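hey m, so remember when u said the tokens were messed up on ur end? i reran from scratch. heres the input so u can diff it against urs
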Amino acid sequence: MEEKLKKEAILRHIVGGEKPKAIYTEINRSKKWFFKWLKRYKTGDEDWYKERSRAPLTRPNETSKKEKELVISIRKRLESEHFAQIGVSAIKWELHKLGMNFSSDRAISGFIKQEGLVKKTAYIPKGV
């Protein structure tokens, strides 16, 4: 419906020669809305009337797959060692020893949860 309205408004201006103000007031849209779609039409793009994603094209702070795999492998290695600590701080320490600075505790914790490596032990009362 909205796409049809955009096409109709722009064609009324281009083909019909109507004034922009008459068009956008009649269809109850803003001046900014009308000129945005007119500008897109003039680019010559075939799909000028379609909405575009507003999501960023890249995520500069996203952790690479290699780093995630490294965190998981460190966690698994620490679990296999007898009496070793296996928490986020222990993993960060191991990464530090490898010369890597991994600032986000939350990211490490998230990777561990995603892999299902969080161990929950049930509370067993000692007796009354």
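this time it looks ok to me. The chain has two domains: 2-42, 65-114. if urs says something different then somethings off w ur setup not the seq
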